[in-house]
Write a structure and sequence with these properties.
about 70% helix, about 180 residues, elongated, mainly alpha, membrane, cell membrane, two-stranded antiparallel ribbon, TRAP transporter small permease protein
Length: about 180
């Protein structure tokens, strides 16, 4: 059976996304080990620089390692939301339609996407963009010798939501076809 462009795109996005998230998880584990190790030997700051580096500033500290862990945890938690949606593993109330025909299920999912997901994305994408833009404009950084440039992590919110919106759009196109 030949693969449709939607299935091809879904497979590629899923593979790339999961691969990137697996690397992020390895980095997170490495940061945890480093933070515990440097904390045990009471090494703080871990490294200092003559000039400020993006995100790190002039030093890598125990707090910046801890901040990086939290930031990666947010990325690992939010970024796969679109993949979960494309894989049809998201939460919903299946008992409403689990024994119904596929066309009826497609119509129900389409109605849910249009009635609930679309209005959510209209509001959330704008708000999350403003949230990240304010952090960028104010050059927000950590108050406790942690990471600088907090707009980077705050930008994950609109990016993650945009990827989720793209996944919902891809599914909606498929549902329109299947609901006929």
């Amino acid at each position: 059976m030949e693969q449709s462009w939607e299935e091809w795109l879904q497979a590629r996005v899923t593979d790339l996304g999961l691969r990137a998230l697996s690397y992020a998880l390895l980095v997170l584990m490495g940061l945890i080990v480093l933070q515990v190790l440097f904390s045990a030997v009471d090494l703080n700051p871990v490294a200092t620089f003559q000039a400020a580096w993006p995100l790190l500033g002039k030093a890598i500290t125990l707090n910046s390692l801890l901040d990086a862990q939290w930031h990666l945890l947010v990325i690992i938690g939010l970024m796969p939301a679109g993949l979960v949606w494309l894989m049809d593993r998201h939460v919903r109330v299946d008992f409403f339609y689990q024994r119904r025909a596929l066309r009826w299920q497609a119509r129900t999912n389409l109605l849910g996407n249009l009635a609930f997901a679309a209005p959510f994305f209209v509001m959330a994408l704008q708000a999350s963009w403003n949230f990240a833009a304010r952090a960028w404009a104010s050059d927000e950084g950590s108050r406790n010798a942690g990471l600088n440039d907090l707009w980077l992590i705050k930008a994950v919110l609109p990016i993650g939501l945009a990827l989720l919106a793209l996944a919902v759009l891809i599914e909606t196109v498929r549902l329109i076809r299947d609901a006929r």
